[in-house]
Amino acid sequence: MFKTAVILLLALSLAVPINRVGASDSEAQAIKDAREEAQKAFEALLETYNAGGNVSELEATLNEALSLISQAEMEVGKNPEEAERLASEAGRLAQEVLGEAPNVRDEGLMRRQTATIVTVASIAGLVVAGGLVYFFGPDILWRLWVWLRRNYRVKVKGSARKTETSCFTMEHACAAVLALMLIIAAVGAYQFFVGGRISEAFSELGVLGPGMKLADYPKETVAGEAVRLYAYIGNHMGKPMYYTVMIKIGDNETAVNPAPVEPVVKLERVMLHDENSTSPVDITLTKPGLNQRIIFELWMYNETTRQVQYHERWCQIWVNVTAPP
């Protein structure tokens, strides 16, 4: 009897950590699955954008999903049920983007096709009209001129003398109209087929202080107290981007670009071309020391390789961390 009781107690004591590990694995898997769904949703959003679709609503829904994933990561180890619930909701929103993207893409293709037909027809119309004016305009204008003056009487007074003729004829006027129409057609074609392309694609990453200013950085903080900073991202890549800002803690010995340490905070956001975003970040440094640095790195999702890769952008601020009183 005693042996049986001991064995039962040992089994119960071993079951507790096993369940915790299983719960942790379950949370991590749920978050991983949600992020993979978000990445697939971004690929669908990018395809829809390239087809001419209006992806503003898809972007908003996908960013909501990414926000839920970040919240789920914060609950890992604290509230497993809430972490899984948040990850599940994020996956549902990503699936919603995947389901809606084909409809938006088809609408974009239809609008683009209509715009192309109208533009090509307008350009062709201008060229044809210019050609008609050039070839038939002078004769029509002369006939019109004669018809308007059909009741005029011409009298010659005095001896005939040589007069200078006008250097600007009807033919010159029609040629000028043709040239103007060709210029308008060329400008319209350039704007439609070439306009909108960017000459230099780039992304922006910045760090702002607690007052949302570039020079408003804390010089000193107490270990265990949160430091409020702001991460600024700007997208000028000519297409939607899926950015991740990884925030890391280092010191004088930490290599950078990128730093080989795990991030303490991650910010994920999908942004359209020419959009920018400023997000608050609370960072807690736990170890006292001089010349601690908070490193911000910009990463991006590569839809070709389907990997998150370093985007060669980083910032840092230096801060001294004192022990709590």
Give the structure's gist in a few sentences.
This protein is α+β, with helices and mostly antiparallel strands. The protein folds into 2 domains: 1-150 and 182-197, Butyryl-CoA Dehydrogenase, subunit A, domain 3, CATH 1.20.140; 202-322, Immunoglobulin-like (Sandwich). Helices cover 50% and strands 24% of the residues.
Summarize the structure in words:
- By secondary structure, the protein is an alpha+beta fold.
- The chain has 2 domains: 1-150 and 182-197, Butyryl-CoA Dehydrogenase, subunit A, domain 3, CATH 1.20.140; 202-322, Immunoglobulins (Immunoglobulin-like, Sandwich).
- It has 4 helices and 8 strands, in the order ααααββββββββ.
- The protein has helices at 2-50, 56-75, 80-148, 170-193, and strands at residues 202-208, 220-222, 226-236, 241-250, 265-271, 276-284, 289-302, 307-322.
- The chain has a 5-stranded mixed beta sheet.
- A hairpin with a 4-residue loop joins strand 7 and strand 8.
- Helix 1 packs parallel to helix 3.
- The chain is elongated and about 115 Å long.
Head-to-tail CA distance between termini: 55 Å
Q: Strand tally, please?
A: 8
Low-confidence stretches: 1-23
The CATH class of the largest domain: Mainly Alpha
Strand content: 15-25%
Name the shape in a single word: elongated
Strand order of the largest sheet: 2-8-7-4-5
Order of helices and strands: HHHHEEEEEEEE
Give me the CATH fold name of the largest domain. Butyryl-CoA Dehydrogenase, subunit A, domain 3
Mean pLDDT: 85
